[in-house]
Amino acid sequence: MTTAPNTPVRTSALLGAAAVALIAAFVLAPSPLAAIGGPHGGFSSEQALRDAFSKAFIDYWKSGDRTFPAGMQDIVDYWFRFHVAKAAIAAALLAVFIALAIRLWRITAGLGVLMAILALFSAAMLAANIQGAAAPFSSLLSMLPTGNSHGDLGTTITQIDQHLAHYPHQTTAATPAVKVMVDDFGLYHAVLAVVGAITALVLITLSVMAWRRRANRSMLWCAILTALTALAVLVVTAANIGTAADPAPALLGFFQGGW
Predict the structure, then answer these.
(1) pLDDT of 1 over the 50 cut
(2) Are 141 and 254 in contact (CB under 8 A)?
(3) Helices in 29-135 by DSSP H: which ranges?
(4) 36 pLDDT exceeds 90?
(5) What is the pTM of this model?
(6) C-alpha distances out from residue 77 to 139, 185, 217, Å
(7) Torsion angle of alpha carbons 205, 211, 212, 217, nearest 10°?
């Protein structure tokens, strides 16, 4: 009979433990999970992945083919699985932090706001990994040392720059990889634009709901913070819509070290 009043406390404690476990999994689990099913396993370190991708990228450019060579495809598939694992864990974290925010808000608004902020952070991680899973090749491009490239990689990037500077007017059938990169880069930003629009809609809805209860000072601050966050998300969404509509200049900027 005496355990009933403690049930909400135990539930919150269990949710807190789940959050800690999921945070650890978010950091540690994706790499080994992504290695499962791959023909060559995973990578010993991030630097090993960077080195492998740089080599595969050069080989892909030299192949003159639209289709990824086997080595490149293995890395892209690995990176897809990596982001799927991270997205799944981030989604679980989001659900846990939302549950904690609702429960702890009843105890103290301060803890509820903290959990809500952590939920927003989890939502951002979920969005980023959905983007990475949807366009893993473009996500991998960030691993290229574009600002300090030399040798074969430097030559490759210089050639890509030349094609992108005049894209699509001087892109020929001899450089199908350029179109693959441009299209995938457009998809990369289109996905984030869609996710951002959905996120902004949810935040605006939450802000309106909180504003209706603004007599409570905590709810007033919640309404203001969610509205400001929604505004920031809309700005990022608009930028991604623009890039998705015309990805070649942004991709050129990336290869020139501007991303």
Answers:
(1) no
(2) yes
(3) 30-35, 46-63, 70-105, 109-134
(4) no
(5) 0.88
(6) 12, 17, 49
(7) 140
19 pLDDT band, cuts 50/70/90, is very high
Q: Of 190, 130, 128, 174, which Cα lies nearest the Cα of 182?
A: 190
Angle, helices 70-105/7-28, rounded to nearest 10 degrees: 160
**Helical axes 176-211 vs 247-255, angle rounded to 10°:** 110
In whole angstroms, what is the distance from residue 92 CA to residue 243 CA?
Answer: 30
Q: State pLDDT tens for residues 219-234.
A: 788 888 889 999 999 9
Asked if 103 and 60 touch (Cβ cutoff 8 Å), the reply is no
SS3 content of the chain, % helix, strand, coil (to 5): 80, 0, 20
Q: For the CA atoms of 248, 252, 258, 259, what is the dihedral angle to 10 degrees?
A: 50
DSSP 41: -
Alpha carbon separation from 216 to 165, 202, 210 (Å, rounded): 55, 21, 9
Please check whether residue 82 is in contact with residue 27, taking contact to mean a CB–CB distance below 8 angstroms: no
